[in-house]
Amino acid sequence: MRHQIEAAIKEVSDVLYGKQEAIQLALTCIFSQGHLLIEDLPGMGKTTLAHGLAKVLGLEYQRLQFTSDMLPADILGVTIFDAASHQFKFHPGPVFTQLLLADEVNRTTPKTQSALLEAMEEGRVSIDGQTHQLPEPFFVIATQNPVTQQGTFPLPESQLDRFLMRLELGYPDARAERELLQGGDTRQRLETMSRVISPAQLQAISAACAAVKVSDSIIDYLQRLVAYSRQSADFSVGISPRGALALLKACRSWAFIQGRDYVIPEDLQQLLGPVAGHRLRAADDMGLAANALIQQLLSRVDVVA
């Protein structure tokens, strides 16, 4: 399985230069059966990453561009009366896929954003009193632009919490950008990418990740981090039980990708930002960004009690 994981990372790295860690984190999220939020400026490769992952995992893929006039029915689908059969017929929306790219999700209104909530949490949607199951597996990779840009609607905390991880890609370094400039059309390379991990292998990898060992000392360290975030006056919102479970699940998958069958403290430190950064809130008068909050938390909690 690790051979397939390495091949998948290499394949996506061929279209998203210099972002191997981000690719590993995105695969960690998927192997943990979680949803991913990618926040960055336009043109950083957010859509390329999502499309590349769908290709190497062989998942049915839909891209949905969010706009300010979008309605929930544009995501979920609609029931229409069929005059020929004299019955109402459900026409599924783009959410009925294995991997949905919700592009610029914060460009639409909170009402439409919330239409994704049940789908992301339950794997199903309810329309006109009828429940419709989504395909398995089902993943949402959402992208959003910084909230400082015009025409954005910040995601509510309840929806942010549905994302297992949040990533930022950032600018490429000089070497990676040169490879990008000399490499030709990225879209063309995306179309020629091949599946590396089959659905059965993806399921097996997820099961293997869930079986990664976690010692009592790792649980103790995790609980100290969680407790400090809740009790310290530096934070107005700490890590919830759902957030703690998400961090532990992600650490198992990250350890497996790194070739280990056990979690170490460095895994918690590596994953704390992507998993907990969008769940934490600083005290009102501090104004610290997510990265600064995470570094402060790590610096004030000892690895060993």
Describe this structure in words.
The structure is a single chain. With 305 residues, this protein is an alpha/beta fold. It folds into two domains: 2-203, Rossmann fold, CATH 3.40.50; 212-300, Helicase, Ruva Protein, domain 3. The protein has 14 helices and eleven strands. A hairpin with a 4-residue loop joins strand 3 (77-82) and strand 4. The mean pLDDT is 89.
**Rg over CA atoms:** 20 Å
Distance between the termini: 36 Å
- Portion in strands: 15-25%
Q: Note the overall shape.
A: globular
- Describe the main β-sheet briefly: 5 strands, parallel
CATH architecture descriptor text of the largest domain: 3-Layer(aba) Sandwich
Mean of all residue-level pLDDT scores? 89
Tally of alpha and pi helices? 14
CATH homologous superfamily label of the largest domain: P-loop containing nucleotide triphosphate hydrolases
Describe how the helices and strands are arranged:
Elements: H1 2-13, H2 20-31, E1 35-39, H3 46-57, E2 61-65, H4 73-76, E3 77-82, E4 87-92, E5 99-103, H5 110-113, H6 115-122, E6 124-127, E7 130-133, E8 139-144, H7 157-160, E9 163-167, H8 174-182, H9 186-192, H10 199-210, H11 216-231, E10 235-237, H12 241-257, H13 265-276, E11 281-282, H14 290-300
Parallel strand pairs: 1-8, 1-9, 2-5, 5-8
Antiparallel strand pairs: 3-4, 6-7, 10-11
Helix pairs in contact: 1-2, 2-12, 3-9, 10-12, 12-13, 13-14
